[in-house]
Amino acid sequence: MHAISGNHSDPLFFEKKLWKEGFQRVMGLDEVGRGCLAGPVVAAGVILDPDAEIPGIADSKTLKAVQRREIAGYIKAKSICWTIALCDREEIDTLNILKASLRAMEKCVNQTDPPPDYLLIDGNRGITSLLTPSMTVIKGDSLSYSIGAASILAKVYRDEYMAVLHREYPEFGWDRNVGYPTVSHYEALNKFGITPYHRTSFRLGTDRLYHHRDGLQPPKP
Questions:
Q1: Are 144 and 151 in contact (CB under 8 A)?
Q2: Does 139 have pLDDT greater than 50?
Q3: Residue-level pLDDT at 221
Q4: For residues 69 and 213, which has the higher predicted lDDT (pLDDT)?
């Protein structure tokens, strides 16, 4: 695991350092959806073009959904490479959410051809199954343009994914909470029970953990 120190006020600090060292395909990796009660965890990877300017990445935390979608379009058009992968509810419940998050990022790397030659990974956990040189960056979406770009792509993709699932289960409000643990989400769980998209390995805040609309009956009080 590679480590770099220096002036991190430049959101391209890590990338510029690595480009200078000869790494040409530096991929930023991030994931979204770890804290959700339902839906997949989604990861994205982005290899930025050193000569391309993409506005708005540094402000990703404050962007409205429509702005994120617009910037996601710029990222896809102007980056050297971008990739998105997910781990679904079954994988999350089998592996645990941390391992599933790392697996989703691993999928991003493995489906990139030609592969990246260096990885900037958001957080403090590396992907030990990969031989690619890498560095973890805590709060990387704020400190690295590559990671920030990956964060935007993952967020936009997952929000749209949950909006599709919302059509199947509108009572859970996934078009608004995108699966996160809101009061209304817990209320819906207590009223309707879980869906096939809820993570049964999570504490779902209800003692009525039966499948929604699958013909099973809730336990008797």
A1: no
A2: yes
A3: 31
A4: 69
Cis peptide before 196 (omega within 30 of 0): no
Cα separation, 153 vs 109, whole angstroms: 15
- 37 touches 180 (CB < 8 A): yes
Count CA within 13 A, CB hemisphere, residue 14.
30
Q: 33: which strand partners? A: none
- For residue 82 the two structure tokens come to 């971008």
CA distance 70 to 57: 11
CB of 106 within 8 A of CB of 80? Answer: no
- The ranges assigned to domains in the chain are 13-166
Query: What DSSP element (H or E) covers 186?
Result: helix 183-192
pTM as predicted: 0.89
Q: Which residue has the higher pLDDT, 27 or 203?
A: 27
Q: Average pLDDT for residues 84-111, to the nearest whole number? A: 98
Give the CATH number of domain 13-166.
Answer: 3.30.420.10
Q: Phi first, then psi: what are they for 42, rounded to 5°?
A: -120, 135
Give kind and range of the element (H or E) at residue 184.
helix 183-192
